[in-house]
Each structure stands twice: as C-alpha cells, then as structure tokens.
Amino acid sequence: MSRYSKTHMTDEEIRQYFEESQLVTDTSDNECDFDSDDSDMDPTYSLPENDTIIDAMLNSSEMMRNAIECSLNVTDFEENAEIIELPPIPPLPVCDVTSSVFLPSTVTRSVHKALESQEKIGVLPAASDLRNDMSAIRSILWKKKKLQLSVADLAFQGQDMPDFLKCLKTPYDCFAYFVTEDFLKAIALQMNLYAKQKDISSKFCIDHQELRKFLGILLFTSVYRFPNSRSYWGQYGLDPIRLSMTCNRFEEIRNHLHFNNDASRIEKGQPGYDLLYKIRPLVKHFNQRFSSVPMRQRLCVDEQMCATKMSGNPVRQYMPAKPHKWGAKLFVICDSFGYSYSFEVYCGAGDNKILPNCPDLGAASNVVVRLSQVIPNNANHIIYFDNFYTSLGLLLYMRSRGIHSLGTVRGNRVPNIKLSTDAELQSKKVARGYNEEYVGSVFGVDISSVLWYDTRAVRLLSTYVGTDAIVHNESSYSLKANRWDRKLKQNVEVDCPAIVKEYNQHMGGVDLVDGLIGRYHIKMKTRKWTNKLFYHMLDVSMVNAYCLYNRLNKDVLKCKLPDFRSEVAETLCLIGSTKPVKRGRPSSLTPPPKAKKTYHLSENIRYDQIGHWCKFLDRSGKKMCKFRGCKSETQAFCIKCKINLCNSTAKDCFFKYHNKEEMKT
Length: 665
Description:
The protein has 665 residues and is of the alpha+beta class. The protein has 23 helices and 19 strands. Among the domains are: 11-120, no CATH class; 167-263 and 522-574, no CATH class; 414-505, no CATH class; 603-664. Strands 3, 4, 5, 6, 7, 8, 9, 10, 11 and 12 form a ten-stranded mixed sheet that branches.
C-alpha cells in the first residue's frame, strides 16, 4: 500500500507541495535521514524500464499529479505504468515562455535535471473558442518590464516571386494579369444576356476585344481631363479615343455594363440574399488575382472610401471624419508599398460574418480576421491596424497563426490596464516624449502595452516590439522624433519609442493607395452604383499593376504613374486593331513642332501581328530607319507603328522590328 493516500490535487496544492518539499541534490549529504541501501527511498534510483514513461510524463502538465504519486513509491509506480497514456498534441502551439517546473525531492535526480531545462509552452484553445471576454484575457496581469525581440525572431519566411510573374515585362502584361481575357469574356457574355433580358429585340452585341477598347478609353479619361465625356470626341478630343470607337457606341456599352445574371438573384428577405450580388463576380475575381502575388512581410488593414453621393446606392455610407464623406466603404489589406491583396465591401451593421474555424472577436476585429485569411501561417508576417480593430483576442489569434501584430488601442478595451489615464498625465504634467511600458502574458503570448505622450496620449499593443528597438537591426532608427516647440519657436527632439516608429513607418499602406488613386482615377459619371464600384476596382487593379511592375523591374528606371496608365490605355485601344492612330493632341491652326525623339509603341502592340502593313512613300517621305543600330534612309513605312523601317532584300529591319524572337537575338 502506498505511503501517502492518493487524492486529486489542484494546481495550487501541487505548487504548495513543491515549495514545502526539500529538493535533494546530493546523496552524500550528512543530513539525509534515509538508508542509501533502500532502493525505495534512494532519490538517485530508478528502474530502467520506467525512464521512458517518466520522460513522456514530463511533457504534460496534466499528468504532473500522477508523477507525484507514482514517484512516492516505486512499487506503486510499476502498478500504474500500464495505464498511463501520452497526452494529445495541443491544437495551436505558440511562442515559448521560460518557466521552470520542479517536482518533489522524491523524484530521481535525472528527472530533476530534465524538468529544470524543460520550457513551459503556452497553448491557446481552438481558434473558434477565442473570445475577448475569456477569463484568461480578463485576468491578465501587466508587469513593468520590456518586450524586445531580435531580428532572428522576426526573420521573414515568405515565398519568392514565382516564374509566371517574373515573365511579366511590360505595363500591359502586369495589368492583363489582373484583368484577364477570360474575365472580359465573362463580362461580355453577361452584357449580351442583360441586353436581351431588357429587350428581346435588342441588337446590342459586344465581344471581349471591343470591351478591352472600352476599358482603354476609361483609363485615358483618368489621365486627360475634359469637361464631359463627349468632349473626348469633340474638336479638341484625343485621337486614340476617337479612332477606337464612336461616342454613341461608347455610351451604349456603358449603359449595358452588367456583371451577373439577374434571373438567378435571390430576392430580399429570402435565405441566401446577397446585397452585392450584382458585383459579386468582380469581388471574387479581383480578390483571387490580387492575393495570388506573394506577400511582403509588412501588411496593414484600414478602410477605404469609393466616393459617390448617388441615390439608390445600397452600400452608401456617411463618414463625417473622412475627406470624402459619402460613398461606399471598403476594408482593405495591403503592404507598405500600396499593393492591395484583398478587400471587402461594407454592407452595413449586419455584415459581421464569422468564417468557419475562426473566432468571434467583435464586428471590428472580425474584419481583420476575414482579411487575414490570405496571409500564410508561420511566415513571420507583421500586420498593423488602428484602434478601431485592435483587441487582445485579435493579437492572440494572429500570434497563434505565427503572425506578429501591432496596433493603437483604446484604453477601455484592455482589461486591468496599468497605463496612466489622461487625467493622471495631466496631474503629473508630463513632458512630450514621456512613455510607459507594461508586458502581460496570456496563453504564453507576451503582449506589450505602451503609452507615449506627444500632444496627446497614444496607447499601443504589440506582440513583437516595445519601447526599445529590435536587437541587431541593421536598419536601426533613432528613437527620437522632431517636433515643433511653440515656446522656443524651433524644432526639438523628443523621445519616441520603437513601437511608435514601427507603426508610423508601416501603417500608411492604404493611405498610399488612396493617394495614387486620387491623383489619377476614372471620373466618368454614371447613374449605376455597380459601374462606380467597377471603376474603383479598375483603379485599384491599375495601382496593383503599377506596384507589381516596379517590384519586378527594380533595375529599370521607375515609371511615373500617368505614363504607366497612358501606355496601358494605348495598348488596350490598339492591341488586335488594324486602325492607325494619331498620337497627341489634334492639329490646330498652327502646325505642331516636329518631334525630336521617335515614339515607339509598346511591345504588346508591336508583336500582335495585326495591321502592321508596309507602305512605300514617295521621295518626300524618305527618312532614316528607326530600327536600333540602322542608319540607312528608307521609304518603307509601317502604317500602324507610324515609323520608317528598311524593307528590302539587303535589309529586313521591318521584319526584325515586329518579330519578338529576332529582337532577342
């Protein structure tokens, strides 16, 4: 029979038992009151067949109670050895927290050494069970210490750029990756169907090539501003637009823009009703294409406005704090360079969708949970968000997926917070640059809470950085910030924590997208809210193509955004076309100055092998050949490219210029 009665001890009783027990580490101690020949009492004695069982027990805190009872008597241990089972693998392991565990002195010395080196691993519950009101979160304890990781802990393990993206060489190639030919064919099909549904006798018909020209005209209008849409076909209009299609045809296509079959739409009030049914194919297609590009390490989530005040828009919102107060609100996740990876259109207060196997952290935090599904797990991505989304449950969920996070936070969302309140800061009369940091731990995840006082108090939460800079950071930054002092009438340096520097440096991705769209966007007026959102998605696709082009061509001189949009628009209007196009403004009373530099069309137009006819001019049209390296004069002229190229038995510059394989050699 066992020396001690077996009882179900709680965690507090086990901890108290550890403290009261004397840890025996030296068998030669004179104060030992046991006989060294007694194997049942010798702390250094253990049966070999029990070593594997003891090692398995060390990995589970739930079996610690069995370890205590079995270690009190070797005979009793042998009786219970057959019924011991290995614990299940925890579902969501997270970062380690060093916390040594000790057993009573009656456990063998080998067990002591193994336990002292064993680290307690924090284990989160299942992702769907996470809540902001969990007892573990509500009882978090904040301690006055600092959170500081090294560069090795944040080493990015993302994917490299795949080969099918590296082959995108021109601006049009990058844009066509998002607006594919199959996508245009699907829209053309829905437009033809919509025309027949409106009027069975309608003669409207469109194909993907004509729709491509329509998109090119839209992109031209985003760069060149005219008073109204018909002005582009007027006396002072643009020749690329006028020669692509007529004004009446353009307006007819715009009136028939449609993206989904109305016959299959579920009526409002019925199960499965979708407010965005009319543009759902657009949202799915663009999200799929955007997220297929490998992500950078630093990402951010924020809202975006598609400005419009048109009545009858079911997704129109009013946000008085925004520059554009009326419009459709979108939630976007993008990187620090302005590339958008995913977005969702906000449909109102009832739009709080909870994905399978995802937690319910509140309407605001659930937005980040849904958008973050495109982020690969355990690649050390870092995501930033503002105080509208931040909560402790969100930080824990991100960390369980191997994603670090940082965000500003509202003080009333953090339980047991020890950061000073605004009233306490006023009573202390703290100076600019004052900061505080407290670190709490939930399920083994360290979370840093930082307060920084500038003109007002700012509070932030993070799982990877605090007030101190990241260790061994080669691109280290000064923990100072320049601020204007009204009393001294000059700039002064104030202390600025590393967490604030990180937030300010990487949080502005969505604002950068808004800036790039705001300068050049499609301003074509429309009465349909679906067309307005379609124009906005085209603008986002153009910005993504621009970012992707710069990312793939780092060694090439950076292209300006208006030139990029103009080249894509020209290619859309000309590719696959046989009509020659005049470039530039229409001729006026005075002849335009002679061009000093030859203008070459994009490679997509040069190599499309459509409409490149050779015409031999008279002697007055004899000019120097524009092929690279050729200095001969010729009368041969390409009516589509509008340049002179040698075309004779001696020189075949015309063939080489329009053949991609010849240009490579």
